[in-house]
Amino acid sequence: DCRDDESLHSIIIEEEHVVLEHLTECCFKRVVPLLLP
Question: What gap in Å lies between CA 6 and CA 1, rounded to an integer?
Answer without folding.
Answer: 9
